[in-house]
């Protein structure tokens, strides 16, 4: 069954992709990231991209419901963020740092938007950002939040209790061994071995095959979320400051 991670713009999606990429590397799963329709245009549809590329885990950003529904049977995690925070984070990111190109996709509208934000004061710039980011907010607004295969999460939960929420995500995907399963330390040893093989392996690692893993040990979760989301604007509307993208 296809695994899908549906993230939203300015909702810690880069951080989440890094965690998922490592897990897929450990388990030998093929992960593909799609951030714009032009990436699947040569295939004719998103579902055809999945079929031709033999995708095991599909990471999506800002997917529209109508495109999501074309996918084969799937198990999905969808993460959203308070729209007010998306606007504030987007304002500072789009004004100063956000890349114009990513994963072979050029964001043609961003340079002009950036130029405009730099001409305006913060108040008017925020209004400009609301208009610009309406594209992303519309996709959140038209998403069906009652789909039985989807685990719905808020980014605020995800970064607030990282270990608990990522355990829920991996459990939803069926990627963790059941609670209380024997051999936890053996599986964790295999994880450490494969992490070395995924990095800069020495001769002895190249000479010996990495142990096969079908599921991840539960003790892997605190290891993989040991970092934090990429720092972003620390301003938050409607609550305490929280620094993230």
Structure description:
The chain has twelve helices and seven strands. The longest helix has 15 residues, at 13-27. Helix 2 (46-52) links the parallel strand 2 (31-34) and strand 3. It is globular and about 60 Å long. The chain starts with a strand and ends in a 21-residue tail after the last helix. Strands 2-3-1-4-7 form a five-stranded parallel sheet. The chain has a two-stranded antiparallel sheet with strand order 5-6. Residues 200-209 and 230-245 have low confidence and may be disordered. By secondary structure, it is an alpha/beta fold.
Report a brief summary of the structure.
The protein is α/β, with parallel strands linked by helices and 245 residues long. It has helices at 13-27, 46-52, 65-68, 83-96, 110-119, 122-132, 134-141, 155-160, 162-173, 184-198, 203-207, 220-224, and strands at 2-7, 31-34, 57-61, 74-80, 101-102, 105-106, 150-154. It contains twelve helices and seven strands.
Oligomer: single chain
- Nearest-integer average pLDDT: 82
Which residue ranges are poorly predicted, with pLDDT under 50 across at least 5 consecutive positions? 200-209, 230-245
| Helix percent band | 40-55%
Shape: globular
Q: What integer value in Å does the Rg equal?
A: 19 Å
The computed structural class is alpha/beta
* Ends distance: 30 Å
* Number of strand segments: 7
Strand order of the largest sheet: 2-3-1-4-7
Order of SSEs: EHEHEHEHEEHHHEHHHHH
* Binned strand content: 5-15%
Tally of DSSP helical segments? 12
